[in-house]
Amino acid sequence: MMIRRSEGNWRRQRICCSDRTETTAYIRVGETEGKEGAVNNKTLNGNQIKVIAIIAMTIDHLTWVFFPGFQHIWYVYLLHIIGRLTAPIMWFFIAEGFHYTRDVKKYITRLFIFAVISHFAYDFAGGIPFIPNGFFNMTSVMWSLAWSVVLMVIFTTDRIPRWGKILLIILICFITFPADWSTVAAMCPVYLYLNRGDFKKQSVTMLVWVVIYAAVYFIFMDKIYAVIQMFTLLSLLVLKNYNGERGKWKGMKWFFYIYYPAHLFVIGLIRVMLGNGPIFP
Which residues of the chain are under the pLDDT cut of 70? Predict the structure, then answer.
């Protein structure tokens, strides 16, 4: 049977179904398929959103090295607000990566390799001892993100009894607590994955976890910085325009993996040159 398409530029696109099977549909160039076949005009692909995350992250980390501590100056606040865009974008694409990966074991292994590399880069950048001596911000967010994918496997498998899942979840929450963004960066991506395809539920998920993290800062650390953390939700304005496409450049995945620890090593060098602590604390 022939399907007639109206005039205009059309292209074939593979559409992933909920059971991870694929079908083919014709979509007008510049548009993507939305929920239940509805056409939407979302404008940002994965590569473009990751570039936004990279820029925001770099601004935030440079702010920490040039304005160490959390200095109560309005433009420092602004720079840190820009930096709040990054973490939720990383959480979102960790969930997307789990959905699209063809080999979960390789995906997890890759994340843990970069988590180990990023641990030394993160600690060097922040002047933090390589061997953790505390319970907060002792290693990079990559540690929690790697464990997040493990949690996705635990949540979605039928091979582990319910009591076993609960014990493993508690254990992983304890293991990831000392990382940047703590347990939130391990748990939030899981629920973003479980609610994949429903952006409203994903937004509520992110709201809940960000509020929890901000509340911890408000109670135990810095109240103003807790308010700054709430600006993390601005990332929803970016993610709302995600069109579900990767982008033309296939190398962005590896670029992001390499850029994250590399820019932290550079920031560490800047920290040392500015005299903000010894090379190896």
Answer: 1-40
